[in-house]
Amino acid sequence: MRMKTTVKLLLLIGLLVWTIVTAAITFAFLQTRDEIRGNTISIQQQLQKTQQLQKTQQLQKTQQLQKMKVPIKEQVESPQNEVSKTFSTFVYALGMVEVGTAYQDSDKIGLAGELGPLQITKAYWKDSGVPGRWEDCRSWEYSVQVLTAYFLRYGKEALQKNDFETLARIHNGGPAGATKQATKKYWEKVKKFL
Fold first, then answer.
1. I want to staple 114 with a disulfide (CB 3.0 to 4.6 A). Which of 24, 41, 72, 110 is the partner?
2. Cα–Cα distance between 108 and 122 in angstroms, integer?
3. For a pLDDT cut of 90, what percent of the chain falls above it?
């Protein structure tokens, strides 16, 4: 049952990434088309369209999560982080801290042998239980799948509460990372991108 839920979650994440990329491409195409025609849309109108698209996507995602009964709250007020953030924003912050970019594949290898855009170690990858090869962690999408599965295993409660401090410290210090003093500095770096 747990594997089915994990597979469904991974499929949902893939669908979400595909939807976001498709929306961004469509938006860019429409903006270019309008500029060519001389009918440039005002910045305020563009923001309204983007916000409406985000609301629609959030509603669709919430409905899909409810159908699957996956216990992830995507937009929850978190007193620990002082403002409401999404899991996607958190993953972006991890990418920025780890390799200085996000949403991109990376061949970067860290000092401790971490690999890819989220700097995932071989042990971390094995613990996640995501099918594939550790070398696949060079891919942004695959790394996010590994990260999510790892959090479902070691930080499920923090994931449900959008407790990004705990999740960041687990990502940096392993299953008990949230209790390690050394991971506090890592959290401070991540927090700057939220």
1. 110
2. 14
3. 44
**Rounded (to 5) percent helix, strand, coil in the chain:** 65, 5, 30
Task: Please tell me the predicted confidence (pLDDT) of residue 69.
Answer: 41
122, 127, 129, 135: CA torsion to nearest 10: -10
Distances (CA, A) of 9 to 34, 94, 140, 152, 192: 37, 20, 16, 10, 28
C-beta of residue 59 within 8 angstroms of C-beta of residue 75:
no
pTM summary value: 0.57
- 103-152, pLDDT tens digit by residue? 888 888 888 889 999 999 999 999 999 999 999 999 999 999 999 999 99
Cβ-contact 152, 8 below 8 angstroms = no
For residue 84, pLDDT over 50 is answered with no
Which residues, listed in sequence order, are joined to residue 120 by a DSSP beta bridge? 115
Distances (CA, A) of 38 to 32, 34, 42, 116, 165: 10, 6, 12, 43, 47
What is the secondary structure of 133-167 as a DSSP string? Answer: -GGGGGSHHHHHHHHHHHHHHH-HHHHHHT-HHHH
Instruction: Quickly tell me which residue has 């003093």 as its tokens.
Output: 181
Tell me the two tokens of residue 124: 């971390």
Ordered by start, the domain boundaries in the chain are: 2-68, 87-191
CA–CA separation, 56 and 42 (whole Å): 21
Q: Are 73 and 61 in contact (CB under 8 A)?
A: no
